[in-house]
Structures are given as structure tokens and as C-alpha cells.
Amino acid sequence: MPDREFSGFEVDNVADAVRQPPLHELRVAARSRRRRSAALGATALAVLVAAAVVPAAAQPEWLGSPSRPGPSAGRLLPGVAGDFTLTGPRSGVDVRVEPCVLRFARTTDGGRTWSDWDDARYEADDCQPGSSLEYTVLADGTYLVRDGLRRLSTDYGRTWQDADEAIIPVRTFPANTRPVHCQFVCPAVDEPLAVDPATGIAYRLSGTPPTPLRLASLYPASDGSIWTTYGPGRGTVGARSADRGATWTTWKPATGRRLMALVGINNREGYQLVEDPDGEASLERTSDGGATWSVTMAGLPGGIQGDLTVGADGSLLIVTQTGPESDRTTEVLASHDDGRSFTVVREGGMPVASVSVTPGYAWVFDPGGPGGEAEHLFLTRDGRTWSRFFLASA
């Protein structure tokens, strides 16, 4: 597995490999939670994104519950694979998507055993042909579904409530809660949310939001500050809160530019990716909480979406796709110099249409399973060391 080093990005080469699909395809992909499939390579395109450096000791704790149900060794319900969300170093939730039905499976041991697919499910009351359910895994046992109205489960998918009644409004997120990380639109999530890892209870902010636009992304920094983007598709407004959502500082890119990705290190330092009117994108850095920005890298191809995170060692990890549309593969890039240069640290992964990062971790799906489907993924915290994480048998 070669490590290919390069300074910045070769813009012409990247532009040839990165061809953005029509906007309606991206919206369909976002609404359907962009399920894992080898056939989705044409709609899940390259990722070039901004990120921030967080010390390993400062990484936020993972969402989970000490009273979670024990996993079952059985692997049932063969069929189409679902969408994986990492909830901890060795825990995750996989979702099997069927017409009008969602099934949730959990693991706490790196995927060696999974709960039964029938233990947790959501079935639409009134499902029309061709309709789809939006959903987001908020935490290990907290799931949000949009089925006309929004439904919330805080007990690992066993029971469901009206989300607008069940999500507790608060002026600021309680200190023991974890803001829900999301990138490039989180289906069923319209606003910043946080979850208590001990109880699974979800919270929303009751104050005036920083903008009337819909939430597009949220990145929880290690010091508790929250960095968000808002807007249709990719964000057009950036916002930062240093007091767990009580007050916000907002900014907009210069006239004609679009804010595409935003990540915070702490309440002062962050990175954003913006697109110019001519279609080129730039990576920018702030050290004053978004008041001013300086260019770290310029000349990136525009029209791109982002999968990014910060490794446990402070490295910048980017999951991207490469190759012609008919033969795309996924690779992971790592930077240990604040994004000034990148090294390809893993390649040959299955192209997917779902987010493949979370704070502190990045992963790629291995296509070596029967029929080209992934049986496991490779997980890294720093781009140097990797562990195998087994996926639920569908």
C-alpha cells in the first residue's frame, strides 16, 4: 500500500477526477441517508475539505450508555446492506433500509457480534410506493426518523415518540451532553441537537437561532464550542458558539462566495472551505473565532463536498474518491502540517455515498466481501495505524 506524498493538490488532475453530479442527485442522496453500496460511486464524489487540529487528550467522549442491551452473536436477515455510523472506538450502529421499514443493529466489540436486526426497527404507518424515510443516528441508542413528522427513540429503537415533544428545549446544552456531529446535511436533523450519553435523552436549543436557514453541518470542538454552517445544500452562513449554544457569532463569505465546510479546533481556531464565483475553492483558517480568515490553500476545484475529521494525534484526515466514474475507489489522505501537504495513506476502498468520518476517526470500506459488498471497514485515528471493524451481516 504505497504512501504517495504531494504538496497541496494538483488542481488539473483533481478536477478531472472530481465531476460533481447534478444538484438533484445530491439532494436525493442526502434525503436517503446515502446508503452504502458499491453501485453508488457515481453519486458519491471526491472530498477535499478543511479541518482543525485537536490534541488526542482533548477528543470528546463517545456517545454510549452503560446499560445498552447486550449484542447477539446471530447474524440474520440477509439482504441489502445499510448505513454505518461509528459511535465509539469499538461501537457502532448499522441501519438496514427497506421499503417503509428501518432496522437498527448495534455492536460494542468492533463488529464481532451484533444485535439482532429485529430488536430495533421503525415501520412507517402510512407509506406510499417510492417514498423513503429520512433518519439520523444521534447516538448509540438514540435515533431520529422523519416520516412526515419526526419520531425519536431513546431506547435503542424499541419504542418511538413524537420528536418535537420528546426533544427537550434548553437555553444552553447541558454540560453532560454531546452535540451531534453532522456533515453535508443530516437527514431528519433541522437544528443543532445534543444527547446525554447516560440516558439517551436529546436536547435542542430554545433561543433564537443564528440564522433562519436550515442547519447544513455541525462540528463540536474539543473545548465544547460549536461550529455550524447553514443554508440550502451547502452552507452559506457560518456560526460559532462558545457557550454551548446560548449566543452565536456569525459570518458570511464575501459576496459571490459559498461556505462549503467548516471545522473548529476550539472557540478561536477553525478552518473553512469556500467556493469562489469562478468555481475554484480555497481552504481558509481563522484564529479569532471567525472574525478574519487567511488562505491556507487556494486553487482547489469547486463543486465538491466534504468528508473530513481531525485525527487523535492532530492530523488532518480526508476521505476522498478517485478514478473514472465507472471505476471509482476510495482513499484516505493525511496531513501532519496543518493541511499544507497531504499523503495518500490508504487506497482501494469501496466508493460509498455516506459520511466516512466522525471526530477523531476516518474509515474506508473494504470491497472484498461476497458480491463485492463490504464485510468490514478499516478504521484509523491518525492515518498511520489501522484496525478492522466488522459490519453487520444484512
UniProtKB/TrEMBL annotation:
The chain crosses the membrane at residues 37-58. It comes from the Bacteria. Keywords: Membrane, Transmembrane, Transmembrane helix. Coiled coil: none annotated. InterPro entries: Sialidase_sf, WD40/YVTN_repeat-like_dom_sf. This is BNR repeat-like domain-containing protein. The lineage of its organism: Bacteria, Bacillati, Actinomycetota, Actinomycetes, Micromonosporales.
